[in-house]
Amino acid sequence: KPITTDMRTLTEEIEKFAKDKKVEIDTLKIREEYRKDFLGNVSHELKTPLFTVQGYILTLLDGAMKDKKIMEKYLKRASKGVDRLIYIVKDLDMITKLEVGDLNLEKRRFDIIELIKNVFELLEMKAAKKHISLTFDMEYKAPIFVMGDDEKIQQVITNLLVNSIKYGHENGTTEVSVENLIKNKVIIRITDNGEGIPKQHIPRLFERFYRVDQSGSRKEGGSGLGLSIVKHIIEAHGEKIYVESEVDVGSEFSFTLEKAPNKTE
Ligand code: ADP
């Protein structure tokens, strides 16, 4: 059977399918819109780095290869483009799993302070390039045990810290704190003094592919998926994420986690 490309036929097919299966037509239409929107975004996101890489390769084949220095420069840029493609595909893979609810959380007890220290170490080089310091904003750094999927929470903290570096000013600071909330919760805050986010963008920030600066010429690479991955992971834990931000002052992202019971209990 040929693949349907005609929109009218597609709608008819959906209606028939809905009738057969006795499902709500609206839900199906929304899903279909969502799928089209998603695919449109994906191809758009992949196009830019693909054309960039192709551009460098063609220039090299066109004679630029004769100069060793230029060749190296172009190969490095092409390689950066490929890195970006890999990064986008990894994010897509994650978001797809998250959106079909295929995310198996493996909850265990772990020390959140230790985990944050690990992420600081992993991002040290990236932060140093912009002379940004990653610090704890808390008096004691004694272990604080929480319940959650430590790998996924590490991804959350990594994404938030990477953003604070990407959108932070040179010589800026990103501070992380972990505080006890009422009852059995802690709140983790990640605060930067970077470029901040204009108010009108805040409600849409966690949507996939949403970026404040949509221009293709923007300096900072990214897929626009980071924050939607963060939100999915936090919500899968049954927790909440918050954002406060002011242009040229900075941003604060915070989320809650369940405190782990004492081991002796
Ligand atoms: P990406 O960084 O790949 O564009 P994200 O989903 O991680 O995608 O973030 C969405 C958008 O939110 C970013 O493009 C950026 O405009 C804005 N943003 C996220 N974190 C910060 C931050 N700490 N400071 C300023 N802007 C931010």
Structural summary, described in words:
The protein is α+β, with helices and mostly antiparallel strands. It has helices at residues 7-21, 25-61, 68-99, 112-129, 150-166, 226-236; strands at 108-111, 133-136, 145-148, 173-180, 185-192, 241-246, 250-259. Strands 1, 2, 3, 4, 5, 6 and 7 form a 7-stranded mixed beta sheet that branches. Helix 2 packs antiparallel against helix 3 (68-99), helix 3 packs parallel to helix 6 (226-236) and helix 5 packs antiparallel against helix 6. The protein is globular and about 65 Å long. The model has no long low-confidence stretch (mean pLDDT 87). The protein binds adenosine-5'-diphosphate. Its EC number is 2.7.13.3. It comes from Croceivirga radicis.
* Alpha carbon gap, first and last residue: 62 Å
Largest sheet entry: 7 strands, mixed
Instruction: State the total count of DSSP E strands.
Output: 7
Q: Assign an overall shape.
A: globular
Helix content: 40-55%
**What structural category arises from helix and sheet content?**
alpha+beta
Which residues sit in consecutive blocks of at least 5 with pLDDT less than 50? none
- Which whole number gives the mean pLDDT? 87
Beta-strand content estimate:
15-25%
Number of helices: 6
Bound molecules: adenosine-5'-diphosphate
GO molecular function: phosphoprotein phosphatase activity; phosphorelay sensor kinase activity
EC number: 2.7.13.3
Catalytic activity: ATP + protein L-histidine = ADP + protein N-phospho-L-histidine
Keywords: Kinase, Membrane, Phosphoprotein, Transferase, Transmembrane, Transmembrane helix, Two-component regulatory system
